[in-house]
Amino acid sequence: MRNLSILKAARGGRAPRRAMPLVLLTCLCFFLSAEGSAADTACRKGQSFDAWLSDVSAEGARKGLTQRSLSELQGLSLDRKVLARDRGQPSLSLSFTEFADRLISRNRLSRGRAMLDRYDSTFAAIERDFGVQGPVLAAFWGLETDFGGYMGEFSSLRSLATLAYDCRRSELFREELFAALALLERGDLTPEEMRGAWAGEIGQVQFTPSNYLKFGVDYDGDGRRDLVRSVPDALASAAKFLRHLGWRANEPWLEEVEVGPNVPWDKAGRGHYRSRSEWARDGVRRRGGGRLPADRVDAALVLPMGRDGPAFLAYRNFDIFWEWNNSSNYSLAAAYFATRLAGAPPMRRGNPAAMLSSKELLEVQTRLNRLGYDAGPPDGRLGQKTRAGVRAAQLAFGLPADGYPTRALLERLRRQ
């Protein structure tokens, strides 16, 4: 959840295979050195890791932590593999359909539906108590850890201590380290159970320790908030967190649609809300050609691969997927996965223009910025800022302003 890096999945072979959970996939997306990376210690003024840990222990004692938890800091060492992951840069870019294909395998769909059946009464109770639908919870559960099948192998305390000692985001991870120690103090987990992703996320839905403290729920009534071994605790905690983020009970989150040629493309994009009646008037139809309800329900038209690719109406609840993990591909894939688990058919892929390479996208960003169309810092990745810059340039050039960069746009920019 709210992962500090965006990970991508991969699967291969002729027969369907279980898609990997996000915590297992870092190696497929990041260039890592064999030896790992060194910590940024500029802010430490020569203080060693062991001396720094002693200061952390003293501060923890002042915060009310006892030796029961603070003793777990003794003997920790810096984990250079964690630093390498933190320094890693994405080595590939995937289109939305490629990303969704690799995350949402046939096996994962089948297992997700089986989990909805297996824990039917639990999902029903959670929806009554928190207002979050079962397919939504199952989608996050499946994408984060393959339904608890793989939660990560890093020592959470060692990872958090490493990232807190490092100067790049020290304060953020220092607080997460204290939160992890508080979980031990409270008795929710043992040190042996506190293993997970490289950045310290824990459990079947990959909570940060601070969110584990705030939103962990003892839903099975055994006296522990156990998000590692208890499926009811993990799912209820995810629902509590989603409700905190603003989830609206009994409301939709995403719907695949069809678009006509006269849609105002410049009004598309995540967060650009209009009523369904307005979208219907402009040629947006339900999958299969059915009419949208002529009502005032807010929806945004999301075109991840431009006007010729898949099209979705994203409702207010879709914003919560973005809050969980603010990656365009991840949030849309998770929401789409939830619709599939709820019974929607596979999306129509259309015939979109080929996605630009990272190098080409970097050139587009650089040229847009030079011409005054703010595309954000050039990084070779298609984020919301870049889409906005692309849309502005398309409007200026008299092109359909769907926010999707193509080679035709790149050639146009080169001629400016």
From TrEMBL:
Domain of life: Bacteria
Domain Peptidoglycan binding-like: 358-413
UniProt-listed GO biological process terms: peptidoglycan catabolic process
Domain Transglycosylase SLT positions: 48-338
GO molecular function, one term: peptidoglycan lytic transglycosylase activity
Gene3D superfamilies: 1.10.530.10, Bacterial muramidase, PGBD-like superfamily/PGBD
InterPro entries the UniProt entry points to: Lysozyme-like_dom_sf (IPR023346), MltB-like (IPR043426), MltB_2 (IPR011970), Peptidoglycan-bd-like (IPR002477), PGBD-like_sf (IPR036365), PGBDSf (IPR036366), SLT_2 (IPR031304)
Keyword Signal: yes
Alphabetically ordered keywords of this record: Signal
Position of the signal peptide: 1-38
NCBIfam families: MltB_2
PANTHER family noted in UniProt: LYTIC MUREIN TRANSGLYCOSYLASE, MEMBRANE-BOUND LYTIC MUREIN TRANSGLYCOSYLASE B
Name under which the protein is recorded: Lytic murein transglycosylase
Organism field: Afifella marina DSM 2698
